[in-house]
Amino acid sequence: MASQKEMEAFNLLLAEVEERLREERGLHVEYVQVLMAVMEVFGESNPEKLCGLRLTTDDLMAKLSTHPFDAPVILGSVEAPEVNVPGGLGRIRAALGRGAGAVWEILSHPSDPFPSDPHAHNEADDVTLDLSTGALYHDRQYVHTLFRKDLAAFRARVAEKYPGLVLPPMKES
Asked: Across all residues in the chain, what is the average pLDDT?
């Protein structure tokens, strides 16, 4: 059985792999996807056994080099500090002194076009923006809809930075 220290080191290792997959392969993967992929490529159903192997980030990246992640592709990112996430998330961030999360990744995931393809994701606030309706979601649960003018301004910023990117048509509200 892995020690607490080995488990913590393994979790940090997986977080590093998650970040490198984002940077090197342009994949918006989550920790659990990385863990499942590592378990699959090593043929091990118990993650505690993997902790004891003393693997490095490079070891895992090599093993995962051809793994077919079903994850959104990062098309780019834009800063939009004026897009405020309303409600509880915004109040929590303000109480912690963090301010609004300004960086939004533009993601495409044709096999799962929810909420739109492409859509925007704000990692700091963990919300996803439907680029056709302005609806904001947290864990696939609706939380708010941007005003149409705010959505149009956000889309204009994306279009200006990525002129070749085809955005979904804006739907009437």
From this structure: 88
- Structural domain boundaries in the chain: 4-63, 73-161
Q: Which DSSP letter does residue 119 get?
A: E
Give the tens place of pLDDT for each residue, 135-172. 999 899 998 899 999 999 999 999 999 999 999 999 87
* pLDDT exceeds cutoff 80 at 173: no
Structure tokens at 45: 């159903």
DSSP label of 30:
-
Q: Which amino acid is at 7?
A: M
Query: Encoding tokens for residue 143?
Result: 């939380």
Tell me the mean pLDDT in the region 84-92.
59
What does the alpha-carbon distance between residue 70 and residue 6 come to, in Å, rounded to a whole number? Answer: 28
Q: Distance between CA atoms of 134 and 100, rounded to whole angstroms?
A: 17
Q: 127: which strand partners?
A: 122
CA atoms of 84 and 125, how far apart (whole Å)? 10
Compute the distance between CA of residue 57 and CA of residue 167 in angstroms, rounded to an integer.
35
